[in-house]
Amino acid sequence: MNYLFDLIDSKISDPDKTFIETDSGAKISYRQMLSASARYANALVAAGVEPGDRVAVQMEKSPAVLFIYLACLRAGAIFLPLNTAYTPHEVGYFLGDARPKVFVCDPAWAEAHAPAAKEAGALILAHGAGMEGELFERAKASAENFVNVARDKDDLAAILYTSGTTGRSKGAMLSHDNLASNTITLVDYWRFTSDDILIHALPVYHTHGLFVATNCVLLSNARMIFLPKFSAPQVLKTLPRATVLMGVPTFYTRLLEEPGLTREACKAMRLFVSGSAPLLAETHRAFREKTGHAILERYGMTETNMNTSNPYDGDRIAGTVGFPLPGVSLRVVDPDTGEDVSNGEIGMIEVKGPNVFRGYWQMPEKTAAEFRADEFFITGDLGRIDGDGYVHIVGRGKDLIISGGLNIYPKEVEGEIDALPGVVESAVIGLPDADFGEAVVAVVVREKGASLSEDDIRTALAGRLAKFKQPKRIQFVDALPRNTMGKVQKNVLRESYAKI
Ligand code: AMP
User: Fold this and answer.
1) What is the pLDDT of residues 253-294, one digit of tens each?
2) How far apart, in Å, do the first and last CA atoms of the chain sit?
3) Which of 113, 159, 178, 185 could staple 171 via S-S, CB 3.0–4.6 A?
4) Other residues' Cβ atoms within 10 Å of the Cβ of residue 242
5) CA 89 to ligand 1 centroid distance, Å
6) In the predicted model, is pLDDT for residue 401 greater than 50?
7) How confident is the model at residue 165, as a pLDDT?
8) Which atom, in ligand 1's list, is nearest to the CA of 160?
9) Angle at CA of residue 116, ends 403 and 158, nearest 5°
10) Which residues form the AMP-binding enzyme C-terminal domain (predicted)?
11) Measured on CA atoms in the order 259, 263, 267, 269, is the torsion positive or negative?
């Protein structure tokens, strides 16, 4: 038995039903999904992929990414998606850390990635979103049947890298059951049925679009309209044909700017879900006013899948992330003493359940440091539980920046800036931004007499950091504010620059 894929297969009550409809109107049925994933599985196995091997993928969004994910499940391999914005420098780290057997990337990027792939011992197989490249050709020539490799609930299905607060990114290991159990819960909690049509406008290298959205569709034999990226006018045009939208808060603020967003436009819709970053209560209110729909906000993370959700039937309270999902234990503890303060005080959110990951890839010490003795995972998020049981996220333990739903760890950006000639030090902070939630801002101290300009820093970072991590503004100061312990006071910086 193959734990997750058998479950997906068992839910296909009608193989001729459309699984994916692309923005050009092409339809891919569940039967075609089965044969495509078998072809990719055959091609990967022929390329030497064995059970437990990693298959890294950095591809523009296309249905093929999902077929390769499913092929990995079937072949017992571990799917490792990478953000398309990562530079060859960043990809080099992931390949070196994960040592995948195969690295699938866009044909246009293959040359730039070749040295890192060679160093890591990975075979590059190119695949373009327009259905071209070596892997596409190999899959096309492969058989459309595949005998699934046996996988148990605890075997790994995927590794998703999260950014590291101290140093490098960590690979969160997710098992077949982490994904299966969470999806079964969500399908039930959010009332998915085979009549649903989900608008898929999220990236597929992140847990939200890859697992939450796609797996909910798969496990309910539903359909999705697969858009290459989020565009408010395109989503607005699609709403009358769809029933569910899953998005980050930016989707909703952008949709609210569209004059065509009306009750009439949302008549066919039954559910709007938001997550990955805090949704402003103001956005929730304005959306309800215009559409009659209360956005359902939920809370999760790469390491844990989904932890909490506002209710389907009960009150969806703006500014809260709802209740712990069935099967998930959530508590709030004093981060210093570990004492349970779930009675309303603010503290560190900790979770336990079948949704919680198996640890960080090849980092047993990091893993051990983030779990309590009773197996609760320390999320790093600060929050509280109110008298009605709703969970509120009040902030992030560390200084994580979330811009457009993507996490940016200041330390990584600071490291790149500090390495530039003429820089003494820097502090990177997130400032409120109506569009992205938060915008990355760097505060830099130059060496005396250094002529380094804002443009010089921008140019230097362009080849080193993904675009979403690059500072939107750079400010120069003579010195960073520090407390008596010598720690940089980022709160002071945030206050001083709040209005730039
Ligand atoms: P990621 O691993 O990229 O999914 O990021 C997970 C982090 O995003 C969490 O640890 C939270 O800090 C944040 N997050 C996710 N959903 C919400 C939400 N609904 N409200 C506030 N923060 C959220």
Assistant:
1) 899 999 999 999 999 999 999 998 888 788 999 999 999 999
2) 57
3) 159
4) 21
5) 26
6) yes
7) 41
8) 2
9) 55
10) 412-487
11) positive
Between the CA of 250 and the centroid of ligand 1 the distance, in Å, is 14
Indicate whether this model's pTM tops 0.90.
no
Specify the CATH number of the domain 230-396.
3.40.50.12780
In ligand 1, which atom is closest to the CA atom of 379? Answer: 10
Query: Measured in angstroms, how far is the CA atom of residue 277 from the centroid of ligand 1?
Result: 5
Taking residues 178-196, report their average pLDDT: 98
Q: Out of 393, 436, 468, give the residue to mutate to test ligand 1, the one with the largest number of ligand atoms within 8 Å of its CB.
A: 393
Classify domain 3-190 at the CATH class level: alpha beta
Amino acid at 290: K
Same fold yes or no, 3-190 and 230-396: yes
The CATH number assigned to the domain with range 400-497 reads 3.30.300.30
What pLDDT, on the 0 to 100 scale, is given for residue 398? 67
Determine the residue of 173, 299, 307, 356 to mutate for testing ligand 1's pocket, defined as the one with the most ligand atoms within 8 A of the Cβ atom.
299
Contact 350, 372 (CB under 8 A): yes
Average pLDDT value for the chain: 94
In percent, the amount of the chain with pLDDT more than 70 equals 97
Dist. CA 435 → ligand 1 center (Å): 17
- Domain range annotation of the chain: 3-190, 230-396, 400-497
